[in-house]
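W.,

You were right to be curious about this one. When I first looked at the sequence I had no strong expectations either way, so I just let the prediction run and decided to look at it fresh. Below is the sequence, 191 residues in total, followed by the output.
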Amino acid sequence: VTMLLMYDMPLQRNIVVRHIGTWRPATTAMLLCVSCTVLEAACASAPHSPALDEYPRGVSGQTTVVYYDVHGRTVEELRADMERLGPKIDGASYVGETGSPMRWGWRTRSMGGASCTIHDVTVSVSAQIMLPRWTPPTDAEPGLAAEWKRFVDAVEAHEAGHKDISAKAAREIIDRVQGLSAPCSQIDTRG
């Protein structure tokens, strides 16, 4: 069974299941044991990708990944657990979520008279990503552990894209604000 998920949409509408191949019982048992043994440690610990911690030059950033544990032996059981336990937004269930609040500040320098310029602009992003985590049981559907890894990697990459949008916006704030000049009374001093 292959699990295809469209993680941009509410969970109620995002699971498509397609069946592939025919499994023989002996092959299924052997593959199941091998894949569960190999993938169990990887799925249980679920370290996040180092790319989640990358931020543009000059942007201070930190990414925290929070996992919610799901259980199941089949695609349908996993889908139901993700719908039940995953993040909710406006009543819709999602498999992942990213929040990236920003803080910024700057210093001002008097340019003589009443004119000031902005310098030392700082922006920090504190991203928090929520992802599902699953430890395959010994009786999981054949091939499900490998398909889960592919799915979770895709969801993580998708959520990292949301973090990257915030990180790029933070860099743009620095680029646009650094060096601006105005009357000192019109510039809010932050930092």
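Here's what jumped out at me. The CA atoms of residues 98 and 159 lie 6 Å apart. And, maybe more interesting for your project: Residues 144-177 form the longest helix (34 residues).

Coffee later to discuss?

I.
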